[in-house]
């Protein structure tokens, strides 16, 4: 049996990159598999160096609950306007990018088969939030599940693809079979927070009672009102999960 040692894996990934060159998550042009720099040939990265500067990181004064950058007028507040209005089942949210600066990238990641973008997203996650995430004692990474038929039509669940890349970097397993989406919800775009909640009622079900986690990290692509991730947090809360964190690729700013 062929064991996949490190060298073999590396060769395999080089060959793969030559035949299926990866696309830049920012501009979508091809990222060369090799670059020549300082007299040496090196593997190309996941993103063009100039493009890497474009997406705006989430930083500055953040909401202590959802992790959204606080608007100018609320810089002194602990929580953003949304989180002051309602309570959540999850403990704390983290996000990588300001939504508007990465929306095109996430769109292609979801709908245009650009699964390789996840390598870049996971790399940025480790760089920016690695220390924090490693300190939380997370036992399981839980991507927001997609309705099965929808996933079959699209070919993959983007949250799952991102979660698996995170698992590799952090050594924390991703579980895709613990919670299921049992209702094909209508698209959330255009719905207000209340309607979103209604739309999600009983949308998720924990299907395995044999696994119990004390601390989990829920993964989604975009944080809008937090309704989806919170519905999942609610389900896990009921099974006795103590600490529930949320990580998304992008988040908007309160206006
Ligand atoms: Zn680029
Ligand atoms: Zn908030």
The gross shape turns out to be: globular
| Order of helix and strand elements from N to C terminus | HEEHEHHEHHEHEEHE
Cα-atom Rg, whole angstroms?
Answer: 19 Å
Q: How many helices?
A: 8
Strand order across the largest sheet:
3-8-7-4
List all distinct small molecules, including ions and cofactors, that are bound in this structure. zinc ion
Q: How many domains, in number, for the residues?
A: 2
Strand fraction = 15-25%
Largest sheet: 4 strands, parallel
Helix content: 25-40%
Distance between the termini: 58 Å
CATH overall fold name of the largest domain: Rossmann fold
Rounded mean pLDDT score: 90
Counting copies of identical and different chains, the oligomeric state is single chain
Instruction: Return the CATH architecture of the largest domain.
Output: 3-Layer(aba) Sandwich
Number of strands: 8
How would you sum up this structure, described in words?
There is one protein chain. With 255 residues, the chain is an alpha/beta fold. It folds into two domains: 6-43, no CATH class; 55-251, Rossmann fold. The protein is built from eight helices and eight strands. The chain has helices at residues 6-19, 81-85, 103-111, 117-134, 148-154, 158-170, 193-200, 227-238, and strands at 34-37, 40-43, 92-98, 140-143, 179-181, 204-206, 215-223, 243-251. The strands form three sheets. A four-stranded parallel sheet has the order 3-8-7-4. Helix 4 (117-134) packs across helix 6. The longest helix is centred in the middle third of the chain and has 18 residues, at 117-134. The chain binds zinc ion (2 copies).
């Amino acid at each position: 049996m062929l064991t996949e040692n490190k060298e073999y894996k590396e060769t395999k990934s080089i060959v793969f990159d030559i035949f299926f060159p990866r696309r830049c998550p920012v501009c979508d042009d091809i990222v060369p598999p090799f670059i020549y720099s300082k007299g040496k040939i090196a593997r190309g990265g996941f993103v063009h160096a100039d493009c890497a500067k474009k997406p705006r990181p989430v930083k500055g004064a953040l909401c202590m609950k959802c992790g959204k950058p606080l608007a100018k007028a609320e810089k002194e507040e602990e929580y953003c306007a949304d989180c002051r209005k309602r309570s959540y089942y999850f403990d704390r949210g983290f996000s990588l990018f300001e939504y508007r600066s990465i929306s095109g990238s996430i769109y292609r990641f979801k709908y245009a088969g650009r699964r390789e973008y996840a390598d870049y997203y996971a790399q940025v996650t480790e760089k920016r939030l690695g220390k924090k995430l490693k300190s939380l004692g997370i036992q399981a990474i839980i991507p927001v599940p997609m309705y099965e038929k929808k996933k079959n039509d699209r070919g993959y669940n983007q949250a799952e693809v991102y979660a698996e890349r995170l698992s590799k970097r952090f050594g924390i397993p991703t579980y895709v079979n613990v919670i299921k989406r049992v209702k094909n919800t209508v698209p959330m775009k255009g719905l207000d927070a209340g309607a979103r909640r209604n739309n999600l009622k009983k949308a998720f079900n924990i299907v395995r009672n044999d696994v119990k986690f004390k601390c989990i990290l829920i993964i989604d692509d975009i944080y809008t009102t937090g309704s989806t991730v919170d519905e999942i947090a609610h389900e896990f809360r009921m099974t006795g999960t103590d600490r529930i964190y949320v990580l998304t690729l992008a988040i908007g700013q309160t206006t």
